[in-house]
Automatic annotation (TrEMBL):
Compartments where found: Cytoplasm
Descriptive protein name: Transcription termination/antitermination protein NusA
MF-aspect GO terms: DNA-binding transcription factor activity; RNA binding
Subunit structure: Monomer. Binds directly to the core enzyme of the DNA-dependent RNA polymerase and to nascent RNA.
Xref: InterPro entries: KH_dom-like_a/b, KH_NusA_2nd, KH_sf_prok-type, NA-bd_OB-fold, NusA_N_sf, S1_domain, TF_NusA, TF_NusA_bacterial
Main location: cytoplasm
Family: Belongs to the NusA family.
Function: Participates in both transcription termination and antitermination.
Pfam families: KH_NusA_1st (PF13184), KH_NusA_2nd (PF26594), NusA_N (PF08529)
Native species: Anaerotruncus colihominis DSM 17241
Amino acid sequence: MGESGKMNTSNTEFFEALALMEKEKGIPRSLLAEKIATAIGNAIRRDMGASEDSVVDINPDTGRFYVAMRKTVVDDLLDPAQEILPEEAVKYDSGATLGDIVEIPLDTKQFGRIAAQTAKHVIRQGIREAERGQLFAEFSSRQHDIVTATVLRTDQVRGNVTLELGKSEAVLPKGEQVPGEEYADGARIKVYVVDVVNGEKGPRIMISRTHPGLVKRLFEMEVPEIFDGTIEVKSISREAGSRTKIAVWSNDENVDPVGACIGPKGQRVSAIVEELGGEKIDVVRYSADPAEFIAAALSPADVVSVEVDPDGAKSCRVSVPDHQLSLAIGNKGQNARLAAKLTGWKIDIKPESGFYGE
């Protein structure tokens, strides 16, 4: 029994309570014990004037719950909280002499209400902190990944959608929603985790349905060759809900990057199109040669020639067959815009017969 003998029954209950907390809330006993030990240390310093080097040892593994004040042996008592007379000191350490430091074990009852309340508060706070820490770790591991969430409610005024993600909630802002998509309460939707920020009120998870990363991750999940690194996604440009262009390149000359992404009979790409509610996807072959890459990026239009600006300003003039001019430019300029974004080049498109008036 030894020094903590007096407290064994309440100790057992205390450690059983910690074990229960661990089981129910998933918070490690050691973390809770550490928090409570700190609080008890603070409480005895504050309420009993204990010195800084008081001992608080709470060990869930060994069931040890030991709290002691350390006092210096003196012959003239000025501070009873930190000093002790020799005749008292020998009760705790038979060989104690002047100048020695002795440990006076405290019965948990001596902390009284204060330590109990502090412990309660710490447990509450500890649970919150540990839960936040766990959430942060859990979400951080899902950063740049796709998670499935349940729609809880939609803010009719702002249009933001609150989702349930595991044990917590996250908001899908109006600006990160795909135009025209409806999210019914209770529906399960896939969202992309853009970032996780540890805020004052716990981790904030930034999610999106419009981020290009969503399409990239869908391809990684659908195309084993991307997942294993044979095929690389070089760049991606997206106008959510309408069209995405994705540039792919193969590290293995025997693997056709475009064919692998489209899949047999177009199965792979159509599974992604379906997941994105019919958004069109152009899979483009990446090339280190800018002219080749730009020509591929303008698909589905054919390109006759690409003239790269000799000044190295990353701009070029592309000529396309006359009847394909509107296809190359795309509806409201979308095809040309996405190709420019995909390649990082400024693209000037003209019909093969030359600009009118040239």
